[in-house]
Amino acid sequence: MEPGPNIDIIKFVGCPICKYWTYHRKLKEYLNSLVSKKDELQSRKEDVELRLSFELQLGKKPRKEVENWLKKAGKAISESQDIEDRVSKVNCLSCASVRREIDGKIQEMIEVHNQGSFPNSLVIGAPSNSVMTLPTPGLVGETTVKEKIWAHLMGDSVSKIGVCGMRGIGKTSIMKHIHDDLLKETKFDKVIWITVSKEFDVIKLQEGIANALNEDLSKLHKDRNTWAAILFKILEARKRYILILDDVWQRFSLEDVGIPEPTRGNGCKLVLTTRSTEEARSMGCEIIKVEHLQEKEALDLFLNNVGRDLLLIPTLHSTLKQVVEQCAGLPLVIVTVANSLMGEYDIHTWNNALNELKGHKVSVKGIEDYELLKFSYNCLKGPKIKHCFLYCVLYPKDFEISKEELIEYWIVEELIDEMETRQETYSVGHAIFNRLENTGLLKSCRGGTHVKMHDLVRDMALFITSTRYLVQAGKQLKELPEQEWNGDAEKVSLMQNNIKEVSFDAVLPKCSTVSTLLLQRNQLERIHESFFKLMKGIQILDLSYNVGIKDLPDSISDLENITALLLHGCTCLEHVPSLAKLQALKKLDLGGTSIKEVPRGTEMLVHLSYLDLNAKFLEQEIPDGMLRRLSRLQYLRLDKACTKAKEVLELKKLETVGVRFNNLQDYNMYLSHQLQRGWLDNYFLSVGCQNISDYSLFSKVNISDFKHGKCVAFEEICGDSILLPADIQELNISNCIDLKSLNDRVLFLEEATDLRRCTICKCQQIECIVSSSSCYTILESIEELWLLQLDRFSVFFRGGDGAVSSLPTPTPPGIFSCLKHIQIHACQKIKKLFWPELVHNLQNLEVVDVKFCLQLVEIIAASDDKAENEGGKDSIVFTLPKLREIRLWWLPELKCICNRRSTMVCNSLQTIEIKICPELKRIPLSLTQLDNGQLLPPISLEKFTVDGRETWDSLEWDHPDSKNVLEPYMELAPPLSITFDCVIL
């Protein structure tokens, strides 16, 4: 039978069909392989991204190769997906070409996958000052200059750059922007910013660079050549850094300082900002000039600061443009003038401003360009605010001036009108700062607590005060400047120099006009008797922080016009002459001195509003009747000298007080009367405490600065009940031998809802912190808890029925919710620190410091001892997100941090210290594990300190690779140089 047509058709198409199915099967196999490789690459990409997210932290940046690999992997995965999508639409005729494309993509993904193995860290350390971005005003007009500088920094052809231009032109502002942009750039490992200034000093520059590198040169002999050699080695080893030297006035040798020559080979860059093109060129710098703003740029900057709503007033347009023209294209002048005119809409005001600017205008090429800034100064309303501004010039150049310190000066100089309270006076002072900052004459810094003057503004202020002020602050002077002394000088500032002796008889006749003399922070050892004899007009004398001076000349007793005598921090000062004649005195500060008795004549200072007698050795009882006579006191500090409550109560104007009472009855009497009168702004009240900051051999309790807090401290009191003010922030109790818990004798404890710090030390009977549920609320606000040398202390809480209980049931969610720092030293009865139910409240805990607790067995106890012994199926995870430090010292019975069914997740952990804990074996630290099994340490970990290699080798870990991952952080601590016998004092 002859084959039919159907058979012929089958023969005709059979071979292609078979070939089609073969190609289709092969294509599917290639596609499956493609999908498999894509999934492998996707997994590795996710692992790298997860690992990177853990290694990235504030101050670190991803490596460039890692960023590039992630982009390459993402692209390969995306293209693979495109191929998958197209395969679904492919026909038989294109199978071969598709297969070749798939094969090529598979090989590419295998190669990319292999490149994604990063054995070392994925990140690089950014500059240590990376978190310290600089205040950067907006750039207008200087963007082109910035782009030029940036191009040189990113390129390889130029290693030294000189940014040149006149004062106020914007050099520093441009570099501040570049500095902050560099912190986001991974090309450089370190960005160093140093302000040099006119008084160039090699040692000071070397110190600045070393500090920026976290290196300490002070341990070495202070020799510029030695320091240069050390600094050279440090910088040479660093490589890939940028050194920005702001405000350079003169040429200097890099070699003399210890700065390696920046080259293409070492990848380093040097940038100078300077007014002198010649100086920059002589140092081999590529010159980039900062020119005056063009008309449109200047107008934009002016409107950005004064407010663009002025454009809605047509009558102002012409005058406004003329005002901008008078600013000569100087950004600093434009900003300050604009701020001075902010909110002014009257045409007459603007015309007057224009006339004033024309009167101040001089050649922009001259050295007196700051004359233009005098317009902003003249716009300050009233002479007192002008004097407040000018007072800033008494500080060294580039100095960050404390607002609080400056307000204190303004008060004693009577530049602020006397108010009813110090708090009201401070409010006026801060309002003045706001005005000066808004005009651009002062710049806020350090988070708003300090201010700084631009050097051009300072020059303008110096010009204004040149006939009345003698300012030689911060110039490393070793003796008083005789030739510079101005016969008409009213205010003399010689602060922060190296002057050791005050004696220059030849210029004494020129001293009669001086009303303010600032000599703080020198090296004074001696002041000649004759020095003050002709200074009859002196009103403000500041000798603070001259640590070498032991006594004052008797001639100080004759300064009858003096209103402020400031000797704070003169630690060796033992003798102060009679003050009986100084009846104009309003402020007397002897805090931190070594005087042993109240200066004679203090009771005569009836105009005093500020008295600090917190001297180191002043422990005598205050003479009867002395305080009663000082009825104007608003600020009183007598931390150690015993004071009678009835005398303190006589001081009706007190707002800030630090006093010590002889006994608890006196304290309670004062407190009860003070509560009726109304409470204080700040206080530090103590009973029996002579040195509240030295409770134990192992720890110094950092008492809050009482000027900014509310603290009560007791030592060696027993019997009577203790009153507490409701707004107390800090409570310190020491050597109260009959106290079993705080609520045993402390009244109104439950009302102390703002208690932030509590220290209990050497109270031999105390068993728990509180034993009443009504007092649990005090533990909701506590941030720091210090329990030191408490022989019977065993638990935080005691049940209401008298039974010892670890914590109330159920646990109030607020207890310890604010706790940041807990320190427990030499508490011999405690066996278990935290219970699981309590750990969940510790989300703000940062430091755990436990030492010399002989019976402590567990840090986090098992909730069920039976379950612990029998073992459990479910693992418990304790998450402490803010924990930074764990210190465990000399705990001979400590067996575990938490039980074997538990782990701790502490991603903020920086420090672990384990010393003399022989029974502690397991470290329950939970480490992140990637999909490929790789472990990652806590991203912030800096060191893991143990007392010996044997201790490290004996530790057990939940994961077999934990030890290897953490070993790079391991440090061996030197042996403790104390024996346990000295713990029990």
Can you offer a commentary on this structure?
There is one protein chain. The protein is α/β, with parallel strands linked by helices. The protein is 31% helix and 17% strand. The chain has 27 helices and 44 strands. The strands form eleven sheets. The protein has a 20-stranded parallel beta sheet. The chain has a five-stranded parallel beta sheet with strand order 4-5-6-3-7, with helices on both faces. Helix 21 (664-677) links the parallel strand 21 and strand 22 (682-687). The chain is globular, with a radius of gyration of 36 Å. Residues 24-51 form a coiled coil. One of its GO terms (biological process) is defense response. Residues 394-461 form the Disease resistance protein winged helix domain. GO terms for molecular function: ADP binding; ATP binding. It comes from Acer negundo.
Features:
985 residues; alpha/beta; 20-stranded parallel beta sheet; five-stranded parallel beta sheet; 27 helices; 44 strands; globular; disordered N terminus; disordered C terminus
How would you summarize this macromolecular structure in one to three sentences?
With 985 residues, the protein is of the alpha/beta class. It is built from 27 helices and 44 strands. Helix 1 packs parallel to helix 3 and helix 2 runs antiparallel to helix 3.
List the helices and strands and how they pair.
Blueprint: H1 5-55, E1 60-62, H2 64-87, H3 95-115, E2 123-125, H4 143-154, E3 160-164, H5 171-182, E4 190-195, H6 202-212, H7 224-238, E5 241-248, H8 254-257, E6 269-274, H9 277-282, E7 286-289, H10 295-306, H11 317-326, H12 331-340, H13 347-360, H14 374-378, H15 383-391, E8 401-402, H16 403-412, H17 422-438, E9 443-445, E10 450-452, H18 455-464, E11 469-471, E12 491-493, E13 501-502, E14 516-518, E15 526-527, E16 540-542, E17 564-566, E18 587-589, E19 610-612, H19 626-629, E20 635-643, H20 645-649, E21 656-661, H21 664-677, E22 682-687, E23 710-715, E24 722-723, E25 730-734, H22 742-745, E26 746-747, E27 757-761, H23 778-781, E28 784-788, E29 797-798, E30 804-805, E31 821-825, E32 832-834, H24 836-839, E33 847-851, E34 858-860, H25 865-870, E35 876-879, E36 885-889, E37 902-905, E38 911-915, E39 922-923, E40 928-929, E41 935-936, E42 943-946, H26 949-954, E43 956-957, H27 962-966, E44 970-972
Parallel strand pairs: 3-6, 3-7, 4-5, 5-6, 11-12, 12-14, 13-15, 14-16, 16-17, 17-18, 18-19, 19-20, 20-21, 21-22, 22-23, 23-25, 24-26, 25-27, 27-28, 28-31, 31-33, 32-34, 33-36, 35-37, 36-38, 38-42, 39-43, 42-44
Antiparallel strand pairs: 1-2, 8-10, 9-10, 29-30, 40-41
Helix pairs in contact: 1-2, 1-3, 2-3, 4-5, 6-7, 10-12, 11-13, 16-17
